[in-house]
Amino acid sequence: MSYVALLSIFMSVEIKKLVPTRKELRRFVDFGISLYSGNSCYVPPLRIDEIQTLLPEKNPAFDFCRAQAFMAYREGKPAGKIVAIVNDVANGRSGKKQARFGFVDFIDDAEVVDELFSAAENWAREQGMTEIIGPMGFTDMDHEGMLVDGFDEMGTMATIYNYPYYPRHMERMGYTKDADWIEFRVEVPDKVPEKYARIAEIVKKKYNLRVLKYTSRKKIKDEYGRELFKLINEAYDKLYGYCPLSERQIDYYISQYLDFLRLDCVSVIVDAEDKLVGVGISMPSLSQGLRKANGRLFPFGWYHILKSIKGKSDVVDLMLIAVAKEYQNKGVNAMIFADLLPIYIKSGFKFAESNIELETNENVQQQWQYFNYRQHRRRRAWKKQL
């Protein structure tokens, strides 16, 4: 073989289909984190969490999902990654033959991007799918939505950060908007807004509701752990792309997430029979701690993350609010914030970061009208016919 032919092979883009082992997935995750080295807005995920999410023997979503991870190499060096997913439960609910792509990162190279997405699209076709959407994970508990505005804003632990060239490549490849989410940065006021406090008191008396506060993680898990995730299933059922959590997933997330809660930042609302009707989960921002840990728990990453949870921070992340269907739009959100705002003020939080909200979800966005806020990030789910 001539030198020119050999060089041509070496310079081409190579796509590798990954076998889901810890070693292969570690390389997959490490590439995504290294791509943003030095970027002041990127918040890396915990590597161990990302790897476990992609391991079939660890993630119970594989009970009803099929997936294939791919990596792109340019000149023998990692240049892109993507996971193609088929969620059979979601498709059964929607009646669509829809694949998802997620966990995606790539260098600014059209050939790399084209080859990477072609691999995911071809795999989806082989599974009998006729459409692909993303970025989406296995379920709503995974990161979703490509950043299309707000690239100069530091991300949160619950969201994706990506470079501005990502959406340009999506449009170039023929992907179009399927849904947008927006995010808000809200100023924490000096006191609970008077109207909020009044609404909270009216709702409390009218429906005989009360707030529960916990000091024991074991107790909150034992008493309301499963009910909490069942409430999420109920409250989020009609949201874009939502797939109800299975019993095995609920067990998985109880053990994975509830031990990290800062309990004073959790509000549990119950009725007269102690039935869970609403929950608000927030926590001090882990963004700076995760950046210092660079995605690693050891040797010292755990210290930076623990310091973020227990130490002083200007920012609180509003992870989720879920309200039972029969109590939605009746003021339960006001009860949750009337409980949490005094804690935020006492803790010295200056700002709250909302989680992603569908741009069409006006009911949720109306809750910010009593605060000073700005809408500072927008992210998108793209779609393409196969």
| Largest β sheet strand count, sense and barrel closure | 14 strands, mixed
Could you give the order of the helices and strands? Answer: HEHHEEHEHEEHEHEHHEEHHEHEEHE
* Shape designation: globular
The N- and C-terminal alpha carbons lie at a distance of 37 Å
Mean pLDDT: 92
> What structural class do helix, strand and pairing data support?
alpha+beta
**Rg calculated over all Cα atoms:** 22 Å
By DSSP (H or I, 4+ residues per run), the number of helices equals 13
Q: pLDDT under 50 segments (min length 5)?
A: 1-9
Number of extended strands: 14
Quick structural summary:
The chain has helices at residues 3-11, 22-34, 47-54, 88-94, 110-126, 165-172, 194-207, 217-235, 247-257, 287-293, 301-310, 332-347, 362-365; strands at 13-17, 65-74, 77-87, 98-106, 131-134, 146-149, 176-187, 210-212, 266-270, 276-284, 315-323, 351-353, 357-358, 373-385.
Description of the molecule:
- The protein has 386 residues and is of the alpha+beta class.
- Helices cover 37% and strands 26% of the residues.
- It contains 13 helices and 14 strands.
- The protein has helices at 3-11, 22-34, 47-54, 88-94, 110-126, 165-172, 194-207, 217-235, 247-257, 287-293, 301-310, 332-347, 362-365; strands at residues 13-17, 65-74, 77-87, 98-106, 131-134, 146-149, 176-187, 210-212, 266-270, 276-284, 315-323, 351-353, 357-358, 373-385.
- Strands 1, 2, 3, 4, 5, 6, 7, 8, 9, 10, 11, 12, 13 and 14 form a 14-stranded mixed sheet that branches.
- β9 (266-270) and β10 form a beta hairpin.
- α2 packs across α3.
- The two termini are 37 Å apart.
